[in-house]
Amino acid sequence: MHVTHLSLADFRSYARAEVPLDPGVTAFVGPNGQGKTNLVEAVGYLATLGSHRVSSDAPLVRMGAERAVVRAAVRQGDRQQLVELELNPGRANRARINRSSQVRPRDVLGIVRTVLFAPEDLALVKGDPGERRRFLDELVTARSPRMAGVRSDYERVLKQRNTLLKSAAMARRHGGRSMDLSTLDVWDQHLARAGAELLAQRLDLIATLLPLADKAYEQLAPGGGPLGLAYRCSAGEPVDSGAARSREELYEVLLQALAQVRKQEIERGVTLVGPHRDDVLLRLGELPAKGYASHGESWSYALALRLASYELLRAEGSEPVLILDDVFAELDARRRERLAELVAPGEQVLVTAAVDDDVPGVLAGARFGVSGGEVTRL
Ligand SMILES: Nc1ncnc2c1ncn2[C@@H]1O[C@H](COP(=O)(O)OP(=O)(O)O)[C@@H](O)[C@H]1O
Ligand SMILES: [Mg+2]
User: Apex CA 349: angle with CA 346 and CA 350, to 5°?
Assistant: First the structure.
């Protein structure tokens, strides 16, 4: 698929922007702070309902404005669709498809598909477990948009269960009556149900992603691998990827783990087991990448994970838009050339760079200048 037109209103620094786009490579070039990333961030938002830079919507709405609108015309084969999201921080966001009446925002998932490379990706390797969970869950949702519903169920159950645990912890501390634990049993089941679904999808993703990431790493940094991805489950097992586990098995694993930590949970007032506490251990050769890999190796690792995501999504459905936000300036000449060659054949590639020289030669294509809030075709 590719985007044929991007339209913004009160998104980030843009009061308005209208950007016609073609398939192939398009580069947005201009000095720092002019709004290049803001443009591609908007495209990424349509694909994930989130930003790669911030965790809440508020900064995405132009300072002083009440709401932002991001709209894109999307072509997939012969089919043309229009998707629109209205961001209302503090209230529910709204969505429309083809100008028809409203749908839930999560119903637009799957229409715009992206794989976004950005300097922030280094945190996939060096950062906290939350970064890797977000990577997995975004990809799980891109593969299967119905997972957005499962994720939001899980979040909701987790929040309510935590509230219950917190009041139990309070009651305990203040010598109040102990809680009726049968209520907690019900929440355990809800948590384990949604958790098992998410866990199954994450494990399947990791098993599918590993050979692709390994191949991509070999192309970027020959002889540097192999990569290993091991799922670290707060419920104790399953640890290594590849082990296909049924949802029912995972449900039992989670329920048992919850039963085991219940006493601690009531003491601490928080849910200690579940996908929200898991991590993926990234290995490079025999060593963990985090804490051991060099800066360059960490970069190659992050790029390999993104390239693998791209291969996976295009193999399983319509080809995603590749977005490369300011990444070439971060790489040495060799990695820069390799990456450029690997992404160049993409159906649509959107690149941002401060100067023309940062865009490798194989990515010749359309150019827009971005300066002073104006986006101009060069
Ligand atoms: N919500 C917002 N309202 C107004 N301006 C914003 C908002 N968010 C970011 N900006 C401005 O956008 C600019 C950054 O744009 P960005 O796309 O990141 O630049 P670059 O061209 O370097 O990629 C900054 O000057 C920042 O002040
Ligand atoms: Mg930028």
Answer: 170
